[in-house]
Design a protein that fits this description.
alpha+beta, 3 strands, flat
Length: 74
């Protein structure tokens, strides 16, 4: 019985050691839709200056001026 508990505890510790780097990895989150690229870029820089995220990417979902902002946190 004690051997089973020790084995279970060792496996749990090993799984946490493996999962910890993945939990701290960078994630990308949707930051919103802006009327144009300039507005999205300004929002990106504001968020970086405030420390809310550290990087941005932009997407234009359809032909038109609207731009999606995607932010990198972590």
């Amino acid at each position: 019985m004690l051997k089973k508990l020790a084995t279970t505890a060792a496996l749990a510790g090993a799984s946490l050691a493996i999962m910890a780097p993945a939990a701290s990895a960078t994630t990308v989150h949707f930051g919103g839709v802006y009327p144009n690229f300039s507005a999205a870029k300004a929002a990106c820089h504001d968020g970086i200056n405030q420390g809310r995220w550290w990087g941005c990417s932009y997407r234009t979902p359809a032909p038109g001026p609207q731009t999606e902002l995607w932010v990198q946190v972590g």
